[in-house]
Amino acid sequence: IITRIIDFALAILGPLSAIMVLIAGALYMTGGGNPEKIKRAHRVLIWALVGIAVVILAKSAEILVRQVINVKP
């Protein structure tokens, strides 16, 4: 079950992360020097990267646990 959840998250990760990075870029471009808009764009980019890292670490942890207990997918 955990493998299916992680694989599903990975399948959504690519398009969703690309969209979030594009949104952050658009917010930077339309910020016009407004510190609040720039700060918002920065937060969007940071959280998009945190989400990517969490899903990648989850997959890495799954692989590591499988290797430790010698279970094949």
Features:
73 residues, 2 helices, mainly alpha
> Which sheet architecture does the biggest sheet show?
none
Rounded radius of gyration (Å)? 17 Å
Whole-Å distance between the termini? 12 Å
Query: Residue ranges: pLDDT <50 for 5 or more in a row?
Result: none
Describe how the helices and strands are arranged.
Layout: H1 2-30, H2 35-69
Short description:
The protein has 73 residues and is an all-alpha fold.
Report on this structure.
This protein has 73 residues and is mainly alpha-helical. It has two helices and no strands. The termini are close together.
